[in-house]
Amino acid sequence: QVQLVESGGGLVQAGGSLRLSCAASGIIISINIMNWYRQAPGKQRELVATFTRGGSIEYADSVKGRFTISRDNAKNTVYLQMNSLKPEDTAVYYCNGNITARQSLGVIRADYWGQGTQVTVSS
Fold it and tell me: pLDDT tens, 52-80?
């Protein structure tokens, strides 16, 4: 069974930094795409950053130049370094992965979500 576990959220003042981590567990064959999403109260979930297996990276315009997505393949972990945080970055942040893993029914490629971690930026 594949699980994604996020950590690193918290409360920070505007202009501060946080680093989120998302660790994937299970018998993982490949992590094809890893994404960070966020959802603020009353708003739709927003794609923040993407890291593909081939190394392509994309960011939402709202975070370009401030956020950096990276990964550690040996640890099956993806990170989101968030600098120059603004109050409008306040949201629950979720990692999402398209992962190929060996499971009881065989090799399965599927999408998985973490439980979310709260990021609050005070002004």
Answer: 888 899 999 999 999 999 999 899 999 99
